[in-house]
Amino acid sequence: MSDRPLAVVTGASSGIGAAFARRLAADGHDLVLVARRRERLEALANEAGARHGVATRVVAEDLAQPDGIRRVATVVAEGPPPAFLVHSAGFGSRGLFAELDPATPRTMNLLHVVAPVELVRAALPGMLAARRGRILLVSSLGGFFTTARYTTYSATKAYLNMFVEGLQAELDGTGVRAQAICPGLTRTEFLDTPEYAAFKYQQVPDRFWMTAEAVVEEALASRETVFVPGRHNRWLVRAIQAPVLGRALRRALAAANRNGLY
């Protein structure tokens, strides 16, 4: 690498992870790019180097596998302390828990819970010694509530939110900051999977969607420990936490879920 600050970004092959990588490269950060799809990482690495003159390293690993988690954690622990650690790798699964492939909850817990915890553990000693750094874990609006068919997904995202809140309490005054980013509907490849084939997201009005780039810009500007990008998403979280309105809204969300709207 170089004397430039370093950003480690997982899930960098597409969506919010790729948007974080591009934004941090534009700000002058060298990049360690992590995802399964090597060809996409290499294309992004070449783009970042050509446009911004930053150094890049491609780490093609599957963070839904214990060996992949260990190898990436070793890369992080043995490298220079990152100025940014961004964990954006993740996937969704829509289906009744009793009918899911048994591998799905295990894989999701590895990717959404075990991987970020182990990467934070690997990065934190160097960050604390340097007295600087920012940890951003991409959670979800689904971490604040759940419905049928999202049992495991919402649980993993709720874990991330609580993990970050506790971690930030421990990091107060150290110069290192932790943040959970909780986007709602975002125009990425996230929904382009067989699990979401019946999801009628095309019927959701444009005003309820965000781009990955907009999510990243709002996240980087925020100092909230658990941050919800998008004014409409923040309203939804406040509403669902309200005693009376929240109950009505949960019933409406459950009905929408039954009708395949999400």
How would you sum up this structure, described in words?
With 262 residues, the protein is an alpha/beta fold. The chain has one domain: NAD(P)-binding Rossmann-like Domain (Rossmann fold), CATH 3.40.50.720. The protein contains 8 helices and 9 strands. The protein has a 7-stranded parallel sheet with strand order 3-2-1-4-5-6-9, sandwiched between helices. The protein has a two-stranded parallel sheet with strand order 7-8.
Q: Assign the CATH topology.
A: Rossmann fold
CATH class category name: Alpha Beta
**Span between N and C termini?**
43 Å
The figure for the number of domains is 1
| Biggest β-sheet: strands ordered side by side in the sheet | 3-2-1-4-5-6-9
Indicate the structural class. Answer: alpha/beta
SSE order in H/E notation?
A: EHEHEHEHEHEEEHEHH
The tally of beta strands, per DSSP, is 9
Give the rounded overall mean pLDDT. Answer: 90
Question: Judging from the principal axes of the Cα atoms, what is the shape?
Answer: globular
Number of helices: 8
State the share of residues found in helices, binned by percent: 40-55%
Looking at CATH, the homologous superfamily is NAD(P)-binding Rossmann-like Domain
**What is the CATH architecture term?**
3-Layer(aba) Sandwich
Could you tell me the strand content as a percent range? 5-15%
* C-alpha Rg (nearest Å): 18 Å
Q: Largest beta sheet, briefly? A: 7 strands, parallel
Poorly predicted spans: none
